[in-house]
Amino acid sequence: MKEMDIHPWLIRMSQGDEEAFQIVYQMTRDHAYRFIYYLVPNKQDVEDVMSEVYLELLRSANNYFPGQNFRAWFNGLIIRQVRNWKRKGWRRFRIWDRLKRVSSAESDRAAIEQFAALEDQLELLPIVSALPLHLKEVIVLRYYQDHSLEEIALLLQIPIGTVKSRHHRALKRLRHQYQDKESAKGANEYVY
After folding, report:
1. Can you give the pTM of this predicted structure?
2. What does the pLDDT average to over 150-158?
3. What class, spelled out in words, does domain 105-189 have in CATH?
4. Please, what is the average pLDDT of the chain?
5. Mean pLDDT highest for which of 1-15, 23-37, 133-147?
6. Would you tell me the crossing angle of helices 160-189 and 121-129 to the nearest 10 degrees?
7. Domain boundaries, given as residue ranges, for the chain
8. For 101-130, what is each residue's pLDDT tens digit?
9. Cβ(112)–Cβ(103) under 8 Å?
10. Pick from 34, 10, 14, 41: which is nearest to 23 by CA?
11. Are the beta carbons of 91 and 84 closer than 8 angstroms?
12. Do residues 6 and 24 touch, judged by C-beta distance below 8 A?
C-alpha cells in the first residue's frame, strides 16, 4: 500500500468513480483483512467488519488530506469500525443479560425469545422480509442499523408515537411468525 499511488484514486473515489473504489479496495484489502482479523475476537465477523470499513471509507474519503499518512489514517478508520462492531455486540449482550435476569413471567420469556430471534439474523431475514414495508423499515433501522426510536422518527419523518406503534406491531408479528416457524420445525422433528 504505497501512499503516493493511492492518493489520486482516493480523490477519484470521493467523486463517485467506481473503478477508483475497486482499485483502492485492491490496494488495501489484504492489509485491512489482516488488521481486522487480529482485532476482532470472533473470526466469523471479519468479513462483516470489512464491509463496514469500506462503507465508511466511501463516506469519509473526503476527510483524507494529501499531507496525512494514509496508512495511519486508514488504520484509524479500521479501529473505529472494529470498536463500533464490538460496541454493537456488547450492547446486544447487555440487553440479553438484562432480559435473562429480569425474566420470571411468561411475557418476559417471550421478550427473551424475541430478542434471541432478532439476534439470529439469518433465520429471521425471511420473516422480516415478509413484513409490510412500513413495519420492515422500523425493524431494519432499529435492529440492523442500531438507530434509536427517536432517530427513526427523524429519518422516516413521522411522529415518535407512530414509530413506537409500528415497532410494537412489528415485534408482535415477528414473535408470532417466529413461534409458528419454531413449532412447525418441532413438529417436523417427530415425523418418521
Report:
1. 0.47
2. 86
3. mainly alpha
4. 76
5. 23-37
6. 110
7. 3-88, 105-189
8. 554 444 555 655 655 555 555 456 677 778
9. yes
10. 10
11. no
12. yes
> Residue 64 above 50 pLDDT?
yes
Q: Which residues contact 140 (CB under 8 A, 6 or more apart)?
A: 128
* Cα–Cα nearest to 90, from 102, 101, 82: 82
* Residue the block writes with cell 438484562: 98
105-189 and 3-88 share a CATH fold: no
Helices of type H across the chain: 3-14, 18-39, 46-60, 70-102, 106-119, 121-129, 133-139, 149-156, 160-189
**Residue type present at position 39:** L
Provide the sign of the torsion angle of the four alpha carbons 50, 52, 55, 56, taken in this order.
negative
In the structure grid, which three cell numbers stand for residue 111, read together? 421478550
**Mean predicted confidence (pLDDT) in 62-81:** 83
Residue keyed to cell 465477523:
45
CATH class of the domain whose range is 3-88: mainly alpha
Residue entry with cell 471509507: 57
Where b means 16+ CB within 10 Å and e means fewer, 2-27 reads eeeebeebbebbbeeeeebbebbbee
